[in-house]
C-alpha cells in the first residue's frame, strides 16, 4: 500500500478507508467510519434532501402546527421529549369534507341537537372545532346501505389532552358512510356525524380528534377518512375532499454500502445502498406511531 499526503483517493471503493488528505492506491479491507446522521438535531444534516408539502407536526405542547413546504421539522412535546423527524408520508386524500365538523349541511349532520356549538379557536391547531353534547357518549362508523356498523359504538374516555382516534373498516357495498362523532348510547340521539356521499365498497381508515371541554360539551373534529389501511397526518377540508402530495427523503449514500434507520420506539430498518443516493420508503405505519432519530452507515 502506498500513501501519499495531501491527495485524493484513487482506486478506492465504498469498502475502502476514507482518509482525509491522502491517496490510497489499491483496495483495503477495513470498513470506513462514517458519521451517523442525528435526526433529532434542529439543523438538518447536509447529506439529506427533503422535499414535501406543508403538513401538520406536533409542537412542544402536543398541539398541531402547520410547517412550511419542504420543511422537515423535529417534533416532540414537553411530556414526551424530542421524538425525531417523522417518516416521509405518501400522497393522501381526505375523503371527508368539512373536516372541522363545524358547518352543518350535506356533509355534517345532527339529530336531536338544537344548534351545533363551535369553538372558534379550540381545535388542535388553534382553529375552529365542533362542540358536541356530553350525551353523545359513544363514537362509531356505519354504512347507510343495510345500516350495518362497520366499527361498533365505543364509549369515549375523554381527557384534558388531545386524543386522535384511529380505526380501519371495510364497507360491503357502494354506500354513504357515517363517521359518528357521537351519539347517545341508550336512545341513539342526540347524535352528530359526518358523511361524504356515495363511496365505493372497500377498506377505509378513519381518524379524528377529541378532548374534554366543560361540564356540558366536548371538542371533536379534524375528521379524516382515507382509502386503505393508513392514517396520515391531518388534511383539513372545507366543502370538498382535499389531497396532499407525497414527501421525499433522499440520503447521500456515496460512502456507504448499507444504512440503518433507528426510530424512537426502538425499531430499526436496514437498507442496502449500492448507489450514491437512497430514497427512504414512504411510511407504512400510521402518522405519529414512530419517528426517525438516527441513521447509521456501514
Q: Round the Cα radius of gyration to an integer and report it.
A: 24 Å
The secondary structure category is mainly beta
Q: How many β-strands, per DSSP?
A: 26
The run of helices and strands is EEEEEEEEEEEEEEEEEEEEEEEEEE
Termini gap: 23 Å
Q: What is the helix content?
A: under 10%
Shape: elongated
Low-confidence stretches: 1-13, 16-29
Largest sheet: 6 strands, antiparallel
Mean pLDDT: 91
Number of helices: 0
Overview of this protein structure:
The protein contains no helices and 26 strands. By secondary structure, the protein is an all-beta fold. The N terminus is likely disordered.
Please render the helix and strand layout as text.
Elements: E1 3-5, E2 22-24, E3 37-38, E4 48-51, E5 56-58, E6 64-66, E7 75-77, E8 81-86, E9 92-94, E10 108-111, E11 117-119, E12 129-133, E13 138-143, E14 149-155, E15 163-171, E16 175-183, E17 191-194, E18 198-199, E19 202-212, E20 217-227, E21 242-244, E22 248-252, E23 258-263, E24 268-272, E25 277-279, E26 291-297
Short description:
With 298 residues, the protein is mainly β. 0% of the residues lie in helices and 44% in strands.
Features:
298 residues, mainly beta, six-stranded antiparallel β-sheet, disordered N terminus
